[in-house]
TrEMBL record:
Region (Disordered): 46-77
Record key words, sorted: Ribonucleoprotein, Ribosomal protein, RNA-binding, rRNA-binding
Lineage of source species: Bacteria, Pseudomonadati, Bacteroidota, Flavobacteriia, Flavobacteriales
Protein name from the UniProt record: Large ribosomal subunit protein uL4
InterPro entries referenced in this protein's UniProt entry, alphabetically: Ribosomal_uL4, Ribosomal_uL4-like, Ribosomal_uL4_dom_sf
The keyword Cell cycle is annotated on this UniProt entry: no
Sequence similarity: Belongs to the universal ribosomal protein uL4 family.
GO MF, any single term: rRNA binding
Keyword Kinase: no
Assembly and oligomerization: Part of the 50S ribosomal subunit.
GO BP: any one term: translation
Role of this protein: One of the primary rRNA binding proteins, this protein initially binds near the 5'-end of the 23S rRNA. It is important during the early stages of 50S assembly. It makes multiple contacts with different domains of the 23S rRNA in the assembled 50S subunit and ribosome. Forms part of the polypeptide exit tunnel.
Origin species: Algibacter lectus
GO cellular component terms attached to this protein's record: ribonucleoprotein complex; ribosome
Amino acid sequence: MKVAVLDINGKDTGRKADLSSDVFAIEPNNHAVYLDVKQYLANQRQGTHKAKERAEISGSTRKIKKQKGTGTARAGSIKSGVFKGGGRMFGPRPRNYSFKLNKNLKRLARKSALSIKAGEKSIVVLEDFNFESPKTKNFTAVLKALDLENKKSLFVLGEANKNVYLSSRNLKGSEVITSSEISTYKILNANQVILLEGALEGIQTNLSK
């Protein structure tokens, strides 16, 4: 699959990038995509929720009424969850929501996500660029040239670039990552995926295994 390489002004450079059909043109596996996205979202959860149960709250331990003869249900402690101020019955406890997926499934999910975006014509290949200093204005100019001002965009760099990353950090709709940080969720969450030339080889090598 041949795709035109654009510059930061949105102009065609006259060069073509070759996107591997093994990565960008496979039959998407929706279940693999679902599992990988589910794992990503589960890993974002802190799992620090906690409610006190009857053994953890302070209160009297005396029996609050006699066992029989009251005409109501027996009750042994004011800390019971059926009374106001009592403990929470079966309340949430801290837990880890993460779960394991094997590497081959995650690789399939990412190839599926890239293939979906390629099928939607939502992948742009951009020549490598850099800024002299971190300025949001410079990155905004790139978005404007690519007609991405009002769209969610994901820029994938070949290697870490501090100036480009810092220039994009204040923009809510844009995210800059390296090819090693790419994930199924981030690919699908973006309206447009912008792959820099330097990232192509790394992506295709890692996902073609």
